[in-house]
Design goal:
This protein is an alpha+beta fold and 247 residues long. The chain is 62% helix and 9% strand. The mean pLDDT is 82.
Length: 247
């Protein structure tokens, strides 16, 4: 029967001698024999055990779980449970890291829109990211509500061109105006803006918002706090019971 020294076990398993010694110290891998000089000697079964330990460590199992598993008389009964638990832990960890990565990517995208970056800008970015999903949901609702109005417009125009029936288009004009007013007021109530200079979250007048130059994410406004006039970042408006902005 072949016997292996600590160094030989380490070499065959692709680990360091200190790793083998560490598992020995934790009583996970105990040598089968000691030589006359006190050297640790490992059997074929010990070598197989070490390879199993290395496999489980590569799979991410903690030392405590490996120790508990190998201490069982019938470890095969426990391995499936541990695998399921560890799989769930890895999935949870993966989702957490995925969310963190998405957060970093979002921060990098938001930073591109900030010309004069400062520490206070991080607060603005955090606020924007917190409100992003709510703002997206609000825009999706507006788009879904606008689809029937657009469909009616297309149908009215086609009918007018082909059949000369103009009254359906007249009805659409009335509906379109009403929808435009309602949608604009809804959009106004659901949005606020962040000043890039003083970082104040504010809501300007409806008239100023309606006529201001804008991009998909920003609008040229005047901050009521510092009077800065320029592009301000649009966010979803958090309001209290009285309709006042939460800051």
């Amino acid at each position: 029967m072949s016997m292996y020294s600590t160094g030989e076990v380490a070499k065959l398993c692709g680990v360091s001698v200190r790793t083998v010694q560490y598992y020995d110290a934790r009583n996970i891998l105990v040598p089968s024999e000691l030589s006359e000089g006190g050297r640790r000697l490992y059997s074929e079964d010990d070598l197989k055990r070490m390879k199993i330990i290395c496999f489980l460590r590569d799979a991410g199992f903690p030392i405590k779980s490996i120790s508990e598993l190998l201490a069982e008389e019938h470890p095969e009964k426990l391995i499936s449970v541990l695998l399921e638990e560890h799989e769930q832990e890895l999935r949870d960890s993966f989702e957490e890291q995925k969310q963190q990565l998405e957060m970093i990517e979002s921060m990098k995208r938001e930073l591109k829109d900030i010309k004069n970056f400062s520490v206070e800008s991080l607060g603005d970015i955090a606020y924007v990211m917190k409100q992003n999903n709510k703002r997206k949901n609000m825009l999706i609702k507006m788009i879904l509500c606008g689809i029937p109005v657009t469909a009616l417009e297309i149908a009215a125009i086609v009918l007018w061109i082909k059949s000369g029936i103009w009254w359906l288009f007249a009805i659409w004009c009335v509906v379109g105006v009403i929808y435009g007013v309602v949608a604009s007021r809804y959009y106004y109530r659901q949005t606020a803006y962040i000043c890039p200079e003083c970082h104040e979250v504010f809501r300007p007048s409806f008239k100023e918002v309606f006529f201001a130059y804008h991009t998909p994410k920003m609008r040229r406004l005047t901050c009521p706090q510092c009077k800065h006039k320029g592009l301000c970042l649009e966010v979803y408006a958090e309001t209290d019971e009285n309709g006042n902005l939460k800051k």
